[in-house]
Amino acid sequence: MIEIEHLRKDYGAVRVLEPLSLRLAEGTFCTIVGASGCGKSTFLRLMLGDEQPTSGTIKLNGTPLAPEPGPDRGIVFQRYSVFPHLTVMQNMLLPADIAGAPLLGRVRGGKRRDAEARARALLVRCGLEAARARYPAQLSGGMQQRLALAQTLMLQPRVLLLDEPFGALDPGVRNDMHDLVLQIWRESAMSVLMVTHDIKEAFKLGTRLLVFDKVRHDPHDPNRYGATITYDLPLSATGAAHEGAEASAPPDVAIAAALDTTDRLKDREFIS
Amino acid sequence: MRLINKTPSRPVAVALAALPFVIAIIVYAWASDARLAVNPADKLLPSLARMGEAFWQMAFVPNRRTGEYLLWRDTVASLYRLAMGVSISALMAITIGTLLGFVPLLRATLGSFVAALSLIPPITVLPILFITFGLGEVSKIALIVVGTAPVMIRTIAQAVEDLPREIVVKAQTFGATTWQMIIRVVLPQILPRLFLAIRFGLVPAWIFLISAEAIASTEGLGYRIFLVRRYLAMDIILPYVAWITLIAFLVDRVFLGLSRILCPWAHLPAKAG
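Structure tokens for the assembled complex are given below, as produced in the milestone run.
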């Protein structure tokens, strides 16, 4: 359960997020869309603990978040998500190394064999078994993102944060990634928060969709008002979209409106 | 085809690279011949044969007075000082540089201080070093350290700061402590940059080594060329300069090779599909 109360973020005089409150049940797959600069990545970084809110609180299962990233929240970024100096297998073992060896940062013996077995199983699932001795620079973009995803799963975080994780991938590869991330989500009790630019992707994957936008606009002082959640839509969880069929929006007025909004947002982005 | 799109094949590239060297040697030989034809006792541009002979004398004929092979004695003495100086600088760079680049509190404390230190012209410190440490090995090594460490520290600090924020955040989501991040993420990733910093640092290191040896020493490559300068012994000075250059080149290659062996990930060819 994630509880967000009056969360606000300013950068100096620039307001990025208007106060927003939100509750997310455990196991929610929450997708977040909005134009560039509408605070959705800032929101994710606040969840991550990499940024601190100007005011307001975030609680995870009743306890306030620590003001820095921690092992209860996993993250996959769009880029630089894996460690370039480690092979695929070494990347997978890093979380176990860190958890098990405070001083040397490298586990040995039985612990290592356990971690290797777990890592190998995850690599097989993510189709990376054959590449386990390669360095990230020798992998395609899709493989790198699969590795980043697999790596976060070594720790089984409560919340998985995805910051446009598939934004740089080809459409075909992106579809495979969708299947993988849904599979993983279904099998775990994790909540997922995913920021994306792709409205179709947001509908296809999410059980809940948040649209971030600026509602108030001061033409003389564009930085005065920040963005907030303009649409908060429950999606038919494990519905047609989740069985791998093409995402088809239910004939729901609110959703249509949301789509409309994001199209408008896209236009604006295109123009600016 | 445009000039910028013409690339030489491997043999052509080798031949082109050799060309300036060959031309330089031919021009030298021609100029030397011309001077020696006028005055056979000319010392300024000794013939290639004369230099070869002098170099042979220094390398393989024991000195009449001391019975030592001077070239090797000088080389060992200089390389020892260079290795000590550069090692100390590298060690300082990796410890202080990493901490400066990674720990904001330390950067706030020491950043400006190191920046100020790096602006002191190192050779101005030499009298202080001679007064403090005497004329022995310590002051020569210290000069190399003073001359190379601040820049190397700042290079490493910058390399650490340039690590993508995403990588550091990701390590924290694994629960890594600052120490764990330093040994598992930061140090391995800046190792190639350390080798690069050492290779670049060797250039000023040689300058300060030769300077220190020229001023106060009893052996060393720099000492030797400044000693024989009194006799206008160009037949020794020129081969010594070439020898120093060759050593500098080989040392550089050694560090490049080390970087390739120890950080294979940083030297990968273009991305696979």
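The beta strands of chain A are 2-11, 14-24, 29-34, 55-60, 63-64, 73-76, 159-163, 191-195, 208-214, 227-234. Chain A touches chain B at residues 48, 50, 68-71, 73-75, 77, 79-81, 83-86, 94-95, 97-99, 102-106, 134-140, 152, 155, 157 (CB under 8 Å). Further analysis is deferred to the final report.
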